[in-house]
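Q: Predict the assembly, please.
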Amino acid sequence: MPRGARFILPVVLLLALVGSVAGASAQPVQSSANSASGQSFDIKAAADAYLAKMPPAQRARSDAYFEGGYWLTLWDFLLAVFILWLMLHFRWSSRMRDLAERSTRFKSLQTVLYWVQFILVFSVLTFPLTVYEGYFREHNYGLLNQNFSQWMRDQLVSLGLMVVLGAILMVPLFGLVRRLGKNWWVWGSVLMVVFLAFVFLIAPVYIAPLFNQYKKLEDASIRDPILQMARANGIPASEVYQFDASRQSDRVSANVSGFASTTRISLNDNLLKRCTLPEIETTMGHEMGHYVLNHQYKGLVITGVSLVIAFAFVNWGIGYALARWGAAWNVRGITDVAVLPLAVILFSFYFFITTPFSNTVTRTMEFEADMYGLNAARQPDGEANVDMMLGEYRKLDPGPVEEFIFFDHPSGRTRITAAMRWKAEHPESASAEEMERKIFAEK
Ligand SMILES: [Zn+2]
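A: Predicted assembly structure:
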């Protein structure tokens, strides 16, 4: 269907263009400025001073770790495509389907049985790269606190989740394909968005606790200022959650999870252990920004648009490939579950080439959340300190093209420059100490 091809290319280019414009608007102004009070404050020099705090050896290590990730993205993609192609070429896929069909006459159950075989074979064959990437490499860089059996336990839980959630998705998806024929991709995207919203909804209650212990943050000296900031920003939160991320690593992080009624803000124990109150406040301000700016809903809408294009491309690609190799692979058509490896190849290809676009979408939202956090918490130095901690595993000072293509969060340079620019325009917040004195005087 050449009509499909003509449709895809301009849309992908348009999305890339929108992405680059959005990325450009999030770029910091890297110049010195005079603050409102007339005092001179050199933004670039202040950002440079923060970046210089990391010893060169540690900086080189962090850069190497992050840059290695660029290549891993490529190897992950190529290995996945190779394995999926093996499944088609050697007719493993059609044999899995035959086995599923012999086991039961119920179509839905056949789909589930095929899916279980598919995900097990795929996981086993990608395991060497998974274990290098997730275990040995993380240990080499000192970024993992788990021994092998603890790590393996998390992997098996993830696999169990994939089996269950994948089955929940595959049964209605193939049901749609069988019912709607070549128009499946429109409703398929709608189904996928509903499925994602469902996963978000259950994640904090049923998924996250499989990997970490969550509990209410009890320490009033930290909880109360956070809840005070939440109330001031119109967030109806009565609890903040903490979780034991130190089980996996020493990385500091916090997140907004859940959907609709299950939405909550959680911070990890590394943040509590390693950070001062201003640093925790600025991080929480950032997370509140995600919440107030409705980033989850916006993200879902953008993902939905991207999925319509992805599924249209997958639909076209399946027609094209099956016309040529369908008989050789013993795949009967688009309604045959044995087509899944081909669908995943096409889907992965689409998301691989649109990575700069999806990165730019999230990076732009992250930058918006940074701005929100600075205004809500008013801790530019706390923000810069946390950005330096994130620099332990994210390259601090990339080039602009590198940041556009590979970064799903702004780089340390971008974030610290934004914090210092905020500070330059708010001379009263010169230091956290001064700020506290000011609040004290007002009370
Ligand atoms: Zn964020």
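The pocket of zinc ion is lined by residues 286, 290, 366, 369 (CB under 6 Å). Confidence is low (pLDDT under 50) at residues 1-38.
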